[in-house]
C-alpha cells in the first residue's frame, strides 16, 4: 500500500512539472500546436510593394541641380523636398554656385555616389563630364532620372526618364490665351486680305532647343486658332524655319528673331515688329525677349493706357522683376511660367519608382499662366521667380 502511494505521488509530481513547462513564457510550443489565425482586421501585405531593404536603411536619393544662383532652383528644391516627405525617403539637394562650374558638379555627384544611393536625380551641366558616373550607375543598376534639361544624349542606359517642361506645350498655352481674348478674337474674325491682322513672336535666337521649341509651340497653336476664323488664309512669315506661305493672307503670324542674343539686338527685332501695320498681339518667348521688347516700348509705358501701343495684347514667358511688373501693371495680358516645383517633385517621385523597379517614362511637368489676377496667389508666387 505504501509502495502504491509512492508511485501515485511520483506520477502526480511529473504531471505538475509538465504542466509548468507548457505554461512557461519562454518555452517552445508543444509539437503540433498551430499558430492562431491572422486577424481579418489587419490588411494583407500588398504583392506590389517592394521587398524591404536588407540593410535596414531608408531609401536615399541625391538630387543634383545645375546650380543655386537662381530662384528657379529654389522652387525645384521645394518640390523635391515635398516629394521626399510624401514618399518617406531621404534626399540631398545640391548644385554648384554657378551653372558654369562643371567640375564642381562632377565632384558633388561623385561624393554622393560614394554613399551608395538607391537612385540619382540629375540635371547635368555636361553629359560628357558625367559619362563615367553614368556608366557606374548602369553597372550597379542605380537608375538615373534627369530633370529640367536632364542628361541629354546619354548612351549608358542609366537614364530612365526625364522630368522637364515641354516648351512646345508651354508656349502653346500663350496662344490659347490669345484665342480667349475677346478683343483679339474679334480682330481675327474681322481680318481681311486687304487689312491682315498680324500676330508677332519675338525670339532671342533660332538655335537654343528651348527657344526653338517655344517658338514652334506658339506658332503652331496660333495658326490652328487663327484658321478657325480665317481657314486657308493664315500665313507664317519672318523666318525660314517656321515660314508658311499663303496667297493673300488675312492673318499673318510674324516671327522676329534677333541677330544676336544681346539685349540691344533683341530690342531692334522688337522695334521692327512694332512698326508693322496691323500688329494686334505679341508673344515674347523668353525673359531675354521680354527685356528687349520692354526696352522697345519705353520700359513698358507705351503699353499703358493712353500709350502708343495700349491696344496691343502682349504675353511673355518666364518671370523676372520687369516682366512681373508689366503683368501687375496690366501692360502684359499675362505670361507663361514653367513649373519648377513640379520638376523637383516629379524627379524625386520617378526616382523612387525606378529604385523600386517600376517602369518610368518622360513626363511633362507643365506650365502655368499668370496675370494680374493671380500673380500673388501662393502657388503662382512660388513659380514666378526673379
How many runs of DSSP E, i.e. beta strands? 13
Multimerization status:
single chain
The percentage helix is 40-55%
Instruction: Provide mean pLDDT, rounded.
Output: 87
The structural class is alpha/beta
N-to-C CA distance: 106 Å
* Major sheet description: 7 strands, mixed
Provide the succession of SSEs. HEHEHEHEEHHEHEEHEHEHEHEEH
Strand order across the largest sheet: 7-8-6-9-10-11-13
Categorize the overall geometry. Answer: elongated
User: Strand portion, in percent?
Assistant: 15-25%
Radius of gyration: 32 Å
Low-confidence stretches are 1-56
SS field, number of helical segments: 12
Descriptive overview:
- Strand 1, helix 2 and strand 2 form a beta-alpha-beta unit.
- The N terminus is likely disordered.
- A 7-stranded mixed sheet has the order 7-8-6-9-10-11-13, sandwiched between helices. Strands 2-1-3-4-5-12 form a 6-stranded parallel sheet, sandwiched between helices.
- It is α/β, with parallel strands linked by helices and 386 residues long.
- 41% of the residues lie in helices and 16% in strands.
Question: What order do the helices and strands come in, and which of them pair?
Answer:
Layout: H1 2-23, E1 60-64, H2 71-87, E2 90-94, H3 102-113, E3 120-122, H4 131-139, E4 144-147, E5 159-164, H5 167-180, H6 182-190, E6 197-203, H7 209-229, E7 234-237, E8 251-257, H8 263-274, E9 279-284, H9 287-296, E10 313-317, H10 321-329, E11 334-338, H11 340-355, E12 363-364, E13 367-370, H12 378-383
Parallel strand pairs: 1-2, 1-3, 3-4, 4-5, 5-12, 6-8, 6-9, 7-8, 9-10, 10-11
Antiparallel strand pairs: 11-13
Helix pairs in contact: 2-11, 5-7, 8-9
Amino acid at each position: 500500500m505504501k509502495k502504491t502511494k509512492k508511485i501515485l505521488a511520483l506520477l502526480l509530481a511529473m504531471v505538475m512539472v509538465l504542466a509548468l513547462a507548457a505554461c512557461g513564457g519562454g518555452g517552445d510550443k508543444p509539437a503540433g500546436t498551430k499558430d492562431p489565425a491572422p486577424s481579418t482586421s489587419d490588411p494583407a501585405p500588398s504583392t506590389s510593394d517592394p521587398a524591404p531593404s536588407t540593410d535596414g536603411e531608408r531609401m536615399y536619393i541625391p538630387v543634383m541641380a545645375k546650380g543655386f544662383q537662381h530662384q528657379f532652383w529654389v522652387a525645384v528644391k521645394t518640390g523635391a523636398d515635398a516629394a521626399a516627405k510624401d514618399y518617406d525617403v531621404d534626399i540631398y539637394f545640391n548644385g554648384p554656385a554657378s551653372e558654369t562650374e562643371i567640375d564642381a558638379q562632377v565632384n558633388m555627384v561623385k561624393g554622393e555616389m560614394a554613399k551608395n544611393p538607391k537612385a540619382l536625380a540629375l540635371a547635368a551641366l555636361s553629359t560628357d563630364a558625367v559619362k563615367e558616373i553614368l556608366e557606374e550607375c548602369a553597372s550597379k543598376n542605380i537608375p538615373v532620372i534627369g530633370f529640367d534639361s536632364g542628361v541629354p544624349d546619354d548612351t549608358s542606359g542609366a537614364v530612365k526618364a526625364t522630368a522637364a517642361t515641354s516648351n512646345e506645350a508651354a508656349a502653346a498655352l500663350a496662344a490659347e490665351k490669345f484665342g480667349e481674348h475677346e478683343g483679339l478674337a474679334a480682330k481675327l474674325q474681322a481680318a481681311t486680305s486687304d487689312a491682315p491682322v498680324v500676330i508677332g513672336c519675338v525670339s532671342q535666337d533660332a538655335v537654343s532647343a528651348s527657344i526653338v521649341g517655344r517658338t514652334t509651340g506658339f506658332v503652331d497653336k496660333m495658326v490652328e486658332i487663327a484658321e478657325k476664323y480665317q481657314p486657308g488664309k493664315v500665313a507664317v512669315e519672318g523666318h525660314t524655319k517656321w515660314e508658311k506661305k499663303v496667297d493673300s493672307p488675312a492673318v499673318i503670324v510674324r516671327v522676329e528673331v534677333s541677330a544676336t542674343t544681346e539685349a540691344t539686338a533683341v530690342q531692334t527685332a522688337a522695334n521692327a515688329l512694332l512698326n508693322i501695320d496691323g500688329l494686334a498681339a505679341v508673344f515674347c518667348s523668353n525673359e531675354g525677349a521680354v527685356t528687349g521688347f520692354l526696352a522697345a516700348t519705353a520700359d513698358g509705358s507705351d503699353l499703358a493706357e493712353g500709350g502708343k501701343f495700349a491696344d496691343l495684347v502682349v504675353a511673355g514667358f518666364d518671370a523676372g522683376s520687369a516682366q512681373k511688373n508689366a503683368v501687375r501693371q496690366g501692360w502684359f495680358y499675362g505670361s507663361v511660367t514653367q513649373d519648377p516645383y513640379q520638376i523637383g517633385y516629379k524627379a524625386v517621385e520617378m526616382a523612387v519608382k525606378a529604385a523600386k523597379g517600376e517602369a518610368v517614362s518622360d513626363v511633362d511637368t507643365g506650365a502655368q499662366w499668370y496675370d494680374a489676377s493671380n500673380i500673388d496667389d501662393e502657388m503662382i508666387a512660388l513659380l514666378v521667380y526673379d
